[in-house]
Amino acid sequence: MTTREKMRLDVKWATRQRLQYIEIMAWYSGVVTRSDVARAFGLSDPAATKDLKLYSDLAPGNLVYNHGVFGFVPAEGFAAVYADLAPAAVLPIIAANLAVANGPYGNALIYGLPAASLPLPARLPSAHTLAQVTRAIHGRRKLRVSYRSLSDRDSQAQRILEPHTLVNPGIRWHVRAYSEETCDFRDFVLSRLVAAECLDAPAESGEQYDDDWVEWVGLRLAPHSGLDAAKRESLLLDYAASGDVIEFNVRRALLGYVLQRLSVDTTPDHSLNPHAYQLMLLNRDEIEPFAAWAFR
Fold first, then answer.
1. Are 117 and 165 in contact (CB under 8 A)?
2. 40/85 same-domain check
3. pLDDT confidence band for 121 (50 / 70 / 90)
4. Which of 1, 56, 168, 177 has its CA 20 to 30 A from that of 76?
5. Which uninterrupted H or E stretch holds 5?
6. Domain end among 54, 73, 95
């Protein structure tokens, strides 16, 4: 175990949250002050000062006090000890204005960085219905639901599900579950659940039996051939491609959502408008059997 790993493990959880905040704030805002820490966690100034001193003791040389901004700034050799500073981890935290859940800071921007999202309609069930779903997942139990399906079958007939995972594809939430009615695993949109009841009966299935969930497939995309060379090069940079192909692995159950979310041209001859569909699918034959609904 490295010294940094030992430092991280030796700190109590609540204190570690504050040290993580100090690192994220210092790195991404460029400075962290006593008042920042106090406001984010509802602390007194002396308590916030104590946290900053503790951080300096545990990670000496990481932060340097700058009299010009009345706060601590990252040193030239700054290396995070407590926080994951990867953009994929930090941007959702900044967007949600989170230090810890339900903090005392109200509407104040605790990282000092405004963030906006699309004002999409809320597609969510009631708190009671969601709680029945999550309790069934947590307790590995069966779930009785009334569901408004868009298929031709009776859309409000009761069915018994065995849910295993909540999924957010970016536009709406759904639950991945085994359906006793159809004897297979499917996606059920949470906002279409009219009612739900967590039953005492244990679920007989689980994610380990859901082949499309546990199996992954390599997705191979490329900038649309209808774009000029400069735009294709920009897209390769945008997706951090190491060559001319954008490659990553996706659960088979999520392939269609990824294609939809990235606006991928899935036509055989790549005939869609390249300005609306900037990426095209290269391994169609391999992918289509698992996401036929997303293909044109």
1. no
2. yes
3. confident
4. 1
5. helix 3-9
6. 95
* Cα 36 to Cα 109: distance, rounded to the nearest angstrom: 10
pLDDT(3) > 80: no
Question: Alpha-carbon distance 255 to 219, whole Å?
Answer: 8
Residue-wise burial string across 200-220, b where 16 or more C-beta atoms lie within 10 A, e elsewhere: eeebebeeeebebbeeebebb
Last residue within a domain, chosen from 194, 211, 228: 211
* Cα–Cα nearest to 161, from 201, 208, 213: 201
Output b/e per residue, 228-247; b: 16+ Cβ within 10 A: eeeebeebbeebebeeeebe
- Model pLDDT for residues 180-191, shown as the tens digit of each residue: 999 999 999 999
Residue of 120, 254, 94, 289 lying closest to 191 (CA atoms) = 120
Q: Are residue 77 and residue 31 in the same domain, yes or no? A: yes
Give the structural domain span for 43.
3-95
17 or 116: whose pLDDT is higher? 17
3-state DSSP call for residue 64?
A: strand
